[in-house]
Amino acid sequence: MNKWTYTTLGKISEIITGPFGSQLHQSDYVEQGIPVVMPQDIDNRKVNYASINYVSNEDAIRLERYKTIINDILYARRGDVEKHAFIKEKDNGVLCGTGCLRVRITTSEVEPEFISFFLNREETRKWLVTHAVGTNMPNLNTDILSDVPIAYPLLEEQRRIVQVLNSLDEKIALNSAVNDNLSYQSLMVA
Known about the structure:
Layout: E1 5-8, H1 9-12, E2 13-17, E3 29-30, E4 34-37, E5 42-43, E6 46-47, E7 53-55, H2 57-62, E8 73-76, E9 84-86, E10 95-96, E11 100-105, H3 112-119, H4 122-131, H5 142-146, E12 149-152, H6 155-189
Parallel strand pairs: 4-10
Antiparallel strand pairs: 1-12, 2-11, 3-7, 4-7, 5-6, 8-9, 8-11
């Protein structure tokens, strides 16, 4: 029997707002150091390092509260509020930046990556956009994110779902790489 549990994100996680401008200044950024994830660095459930900013180890220690661990979820707080990044091993220790919210699952009843996939569902993304505040630019806060409806099956079923979805993501990435390569080759021939 597939028993699903219905709850809200706030009941299964701790949600915090990234540092405010008074805690993290433009002048704190350095060429190398600890990555700071901002909304523009979040792309398709991943951290995009192409133009990411860094802070020194000293500043990272000062901002320790915003340090991520594997399985955290980072949300854009402003603008494209429906996008998030799931923190994997390669991202471990990046900082949740200004303009982001950090979600950390606090129950052993759920697989954090299952929740990330659930949050990426079209219905959930629409819910976020509908409930965001602000007239010119949508904004999320911890209260809104805490109220996101969540449903999950038993843990073993969650793990099976994650395995299937990760396999599909890998196939999509491979197909994209092949298509990019074919496009490049067709330009070279033309």
